Amino acid sequence: MKSCAQTISDYAFRAIGYGERLLPRSDFTVCEQFTLIGSGMIWNIYFGVIALCTGFFFAVALAVGKSSDRWIYRRPSELFIFLFRGSPLFIQFFFAYFFFLSLKKNYAFFDPLTAAWLGAVIVLFLNTAAYSAEIFYGALRSIPKGDTEAADAYGLTGWSRFRRIIFPTMMRLAWPAYTNEAIFLFHATALVFFSAFPARGQKGDALYYASYFADKTFNPFVPYPILAFYFILLTLVVIGIFGVVNRRLNRHLPQAARPKLRVRPNLIR
């Protein structure tokens, strides 16, 4: 039987194609389960980080578009936000996969879209952009009128007004709610396993390996708690990072007036 150190060496990066190719077949140890499920978390982190970073900028654009007085910007933003907030994420995965599959049949160039590393990330990006846009839009509507009047008094207009006054205030107001959206996004990466997007070469995410061990051992009470443990750790990391940003955004306020992050995870989307 392998030592735990050897198991970690063999399987720590298996999810991204490095290390032992064959999965354990029998005599599963807790170390093997911790290592392989942790290896799969690399993909969950990848899905979440890419979707969150790209979706942030699109969400800001959508929020600004929705608050615009011009219908040519407002209507498309409202429609996009309504569609992606009004339909379940799993259904979005389903329709996106078959849409990408039809593109692939006609044009080989679109082949990467049917893989989880790109296709699933696009769905998560669009979904989190819609939810984040609604958060940012609410923050835009809540900006104190005195802030904008002060900007007008200083002669700030256009991009300078948005960059110096509107955007920082919007972020400060929206950040606690956006933190909860970021946490949910990382949790939602577990849905990639259930979507039609395939895991290439048995290099799946954390839930892929947890399900593998549960099926082989007929005991879900070891791999799934390990999976939950990893997601709890990931949640604590996200809270810590976003907490640092929150303190940075509110550094100009007195200590007693600084809003604290309150984590309210969504039970269902």
What is the secondary structure topology, with strand pairs?
Elements: H1 4-11, H2 30-66, H3 71-86, H4 89-106, H5 116-141, H6 145-153, H7 158-188, H8 206-217, H9 223-249
Helix pairs in contact: 1-2, 2-3, 2-5, 2-7, 2-8, 2-9, 3-5, 4-5, 5-7, 7-9, 8-9
Characterization of the model:
By secondary structure, the protein is mainly alpha-helical. It has a domain at 45-192 and 222-257: Orthogonal Bundle (MetI-like fold), CATH 1.10.3720. It contains 9 helices and no strands. It has helices spanning 4-11, 30-66, 71-86, 89-106, 116-141, 145-153, 158-188, 206-217, 223-249. The longest helix has 37 residues, at 30-66. It is globular and about 75 Å long. It starts with a helix and ends in a 20-residue tail after the last helix.
Can you give keywords for this protein?
269 residues; mainly alpha; MetI-like fold; 68% helix; globular
The number of E-state strands comes to 0
Which range best describes the helical content: under 10%, 10-25%, 25-40%, 40-55%, 55-70% or over 70%? 55-70%
Structural class: mainly alpha
Shape: globular
The count of helical stretches stands at 9
Please tell me how large the radius of gyration is: 22 Å
Report the average pLDDT across residues.
91
CATH fold type of the domain at 45-192 and 222-257? MetI-like fold
Distance between the termini: 44 Å
Text of the CATH class of the domain at 45-192 and 222-257: Mainly Alpha
Largest sheet: none
Strand content: under 5%
* Uncertain regions spanning at least 5 consecutive residues: none
CATH architecture annotation of the domain at 45-192 and 222-257: Orthogonal Bundle
Q: H/E element string?
A: HHHHHHHHH
CATH homologous superfamily annotation of the domain at 45-192 and 222-257: MetI-like
